[in-house]
Design a protein that fits this description.
Elements lengths: L2 H14 L2 H8 L3 H15 L4 E2 L6 E2 L1 H29 L2 E5 L5 H12 L5 E5 L2 H9 L5 E6 L6 E9 L25 E3 L6 H14 L6 E3 L3 H9 L4 E4 L1 H7 L2 E3 L6 E9 L2 H8 L3 H8 L4
Parallel strand pairs: 3-4, 3-5, 7-8, 7-9
Antiparallel strand pairs: 1-2, 5-11, 6-9, 6-10, 6-11
Helix pairs in contact: 1-2, 1-3, 1-4, 2-3, 5-11
Family: Belongs to the LysR transcriptional regulatory family.
Keywords: Transcription, Transcription regulation
Protein name: LysR family transcriptional regulator
């Protein structure tokens, strides 16, 4: 039986002295209140009200159990209040620093429509999974190889002027093929992971570039500043190139992509990001451009 519902009807009728008024106080139809109280009486094996009078008068048994019924109803109401507050508590998610404010706001708005309140913490690729492990966040968008990814973001190179070419071959950056100017490729911190960085370094060595021609920048801003101040190239996504107003081309020697997965303390948080919010998360990451 519904013990809490029965006790709520019992307390309401006892406070008003009327089944009709008590039902209204409990916000249920009068027949429902009567059925719940009757079920409670069958459960206890005793009458709670003396029905021989016009008013709903408590029996001695009813008076004895009324304090406990009140406490149960109050505890149930407190639990409902706590549950509502818990549902409003933000789900903290570690995201790449490359995510834009507008896209994150759109993701948060979509989640709120599902009564999920997201809160974001920008962090580097090596830090995000650790934040989940230490319970500083409940979920993280982690850097993984593209073949293992839930979301994949194509990477290429961007510069102020890349000319009419449809792709950029890194071999064209060799000294002697660009009037003696040693152009560099800048890797931003989000791509300073083995499955991206090491593939670029292997191509660098294979085509005969000097070690200094592929460098990891301290930040995305620092990498972009180098590109604006020179003929250097920035390893980035299409969305980042558009944000900076740069020309973007794929790399001729290799197909390259950022891969993202999900790490979460609770399976339901991971599933929600992978499925229901998949498209909104992808927009934040620059996938599908």
């Amino acid at each position: 039986m519904d013990l809490v519902g029965g006790c709520r009807a019992f307390v309401s009728v006892s406070e008003t002295g009327s089944f009709t008024a008590g039902a209204a106080l409990a916000r249920i139809p009068q027949p429902v209140a009567s059925r719940r109280i009757a079920a409670l009486e069958r459960h206890f094996g005793e009458r709670l009200f003396d029905r021989s009078t016009r008013r709903a008068r408590l029996t001695p048994f009813g008076r004895d159990v009324l304090p406990s019924a009140r406490r149960l109803v109050q505890l149930a109401e407190a639990m409902e209040h706590d549950a509502k507050r818990a549902r409003l508590r933000p789900v903290r998610v570690a995201v790449p620093a490359t995510c834009g404010v507008r896209e994150l706001a759109g993701l948060a708005a979509e989640a709120r429509a599902l009564e999920v309140h997201l809160e974001f913490r920008a962090a580097g690729p090596g830090e995000r999974a650790e934040l989940v492990r230490t319970s500083e966040v409940r979920a993280a968008l982690t850097a993984v190889p593209a073949e293992e990814a839930v979301w994949s973001v194509p990477l290429g190179v961007a510069a102020v002027d890349l000319g009419p070419s449809r792709v950029v071959h890194l071999e064209t950056l060799r000294t002697g093929r660009s009037a003696g100017v040693r152009r560099r490729v800048w890797i931003q911190p989000e791509d300073d992971v083995p499955h991206v960085r090491d593939r670029v370094l292997r191509v660098r060595d294979a085509v005969g570039l000097s070690p200094a021609q592929v460098s990891v920048a301290d930040s995305f801003t620092a990498a972009a500043a180098e590109v604006f101040a020179s003929a250097d190239l920035l390893l980035c996504s299409v969305a980042q190139a558009e944000e900076l107003g740069l020309s973007w081309r794929p790399i001729g020697e290799l197909g390259l992509a950022r891969g993202f997965g999900v790490a979460a303390a609770l399976a339901e948080d991971a599933d929600r990001l992978r499925t229901t919010l998949h498209a909104a998360v992808g927009r934040c990451l620059g996938a599908g451009r």
